[in-house]
Amino acid sequence: MNKRLYLQHQVLQGNEEIARQNRELFRKHSVLVINMIGSPGAGKTTLLEHMISQVKKTAKLGVIEGDVETTIDSERIARYAIPTVQINTHGACHLDARMIADVTPHFSLSDLDVLLIENVGNLVCPTEFDLGEKMRIVVLSTAEGADKVQKYPAVFQQADAIVLSKTDLLPYVPFDLDKFYQELALLNQRILIFPVSALHGEGVKEFVEWLIQKRGDFQWKG
Amino acid sequence: MNKRLYLQHQVLQGNEEIARQNRELFRKHSVLVINMIGSPGAGKTTLLEHMISQVKKTAKLGVIEGDVETTIDSERIARYAIPTVQINTHGACHLDARMIADVTPHFSLSDLDVLLIENVGNLVCPTEFDLGEKMRIVVLSTAEGADKVQKYPAVFQQADAIVLSKTDLLPYVPFDLDKFYQELALLNQRILIFPVSALHGEGVKEFVEWLIQKRGDFQWKG
Fold first, then answer.
1. pLDDT score, position B222
2. Please, is A200 exposed, middle or buried when counting C-beta atoms within 10 Å of its C-beta (0-12, 13-18, 19+)?
3. What is the pLDDT of residues B141-193, one digit of tens each?
4. Which residues of B touch A (CB under 8 A)?
5. What are phi and psi of A103, to 5 degrees?
6. Which residues in B lie closer than 8 A to residue A151 (C-beta atoms)?
7. Taking the mean position of all CA atoms in its chain, how far away is CA B162?
8. Beta bridge partners of A157
């Protein structure tokens, strides 16, 4: 193993340990933690806003917004009057377990049902960094193209569900829907795919209903 | 400086030295090297295909394709019968100067005018890694949203030109064109912006003509 790979290995090992501690803490408080991953502009924040609108009556939500710079996203989320913390990575291309551990004290975990984490806009870096989440959702927009499944296999392989966003653009972009489903099936036969137009609200309900059903795995509060 | 930042600093310093050597080699052979950066699905490869079609009659081109996995992009480029090398980073989120130095011997540099490098699809990681290029082009698609300038300032600040791609989607996406121009002007007053629809071929000619004009900086061959 060369020096750089060795250092990367050390970083990942350190991350695993903190992620384990995070997961233990979230489990103790029965908080369902969801890590949302996707490219810049895939539509993660818009989807998050829909999720919040539909879930906040039945469950207590918190949000962690990960961005390289700015508080644009946390300001969008703040309008929903739920606990929100912005992490600015200042150049780092993903969140890591330490960053999550550092902001967790800002939440009253015993009052939360679901903690939604929007990772930094990136299809590569966040893949290897376990944050201590229970679920991973990958958001891919139709504008990005169906070949992204083959080109970035790791992130899709590890996902619990894929949201195919911006389906309203399908008539205008060269997105091969059959190829997309076929490539995903090759990677991960059990994967769930939710086609969504967050702009027009289509498909969001089905996705959120699935999420709500998932809470059966948990001892939810309230 | 903590250990991780120190290691990152060391990696970048090592990269700078190799980038300097690459640049020296490219200068010696009068090869204009262009580093193209953008998110997955921003439209880099399609733009590259247009650039090749329009330039290959007047200049000798080579292409380096950077991808995490697959040879999909280099296969697309291979149809144009120009020297093309695929680099698969297997998890790494950007190209670095060492990777470029390693594949440079596959090209006959004295026979090249322009070497086009398509970086790994990512708006964050490639920013800090100088490859030894002469020019940096950032490709952002209208589907990604105008707020990406504020959210990923470094990559836009360092660019020689921005290609705003998929302008054919403007009627269907909430992209604030005024905000986009204003935010870019705040970051970098001299920056050039080329609105392009690679799908329909609009705006590509203007961009390529500017590139061809840029070759005046070089002692072109042939």
1. 41
2. exposed
3. 999 999 999 999 999 999 999 999 999 999 999 999 999 999 999 998 888 99
4. 4, 7, 11, 39-41, 67-70, 72, 91-93, 120-125, 127-128, 141, 143-145, 147-148, 150-154, 166, 168-169, 172-174, 199
5. -95, -15
6. 40, 67-70, 72, 121
7. 10
8. none
Torsional class of B221: left (φ above 0), alpha (ψ -120 to 50), beta (otherwise): beta
ipTM here: 0.85
Size of interface A-B (CB pairs under 8 A): 126
* Mean pLDDT of all residues in A59-74: 95
| pTM confidence score | 0.91
Candidates A7, A70, A124; nearest CB to B7: A7
d(CA A73, CA A49): 10
Contact A197, A203 (CB under 8 A): yes
Give the H/E segment covering residue B130: none
Please state the separation of Cα A4 from the chain's center in Å. 28
Please state, in angstroms and as integers, the Cα–Cα distance from residue B217 to each residue in A194, B27, B50, B56, following that order: 50, 11, 22, 19
Mean pLDDT of chain A, nearest integer: 92
User: Looking at the partner chain, which of A67, A128, A143 has a beta carbon nearest the beta carbon of B166?
Assistant: A143
Write a three-state SS string for A4-54.
HHHHHHHHHHHHHHHHHHHHHHHHHCCCEEEEEEECCCCCHHHHHHHHHHH
Residue B220: the pLDDT is 46
**Of B116, B89, B110, which Cα lies nearest the Cα of B34?**
B116
Could you give the 3-state DSSP secondary structure of residue B186? helix
> For a pLDDT cut of 70, what percent of chain A falls above it?
95
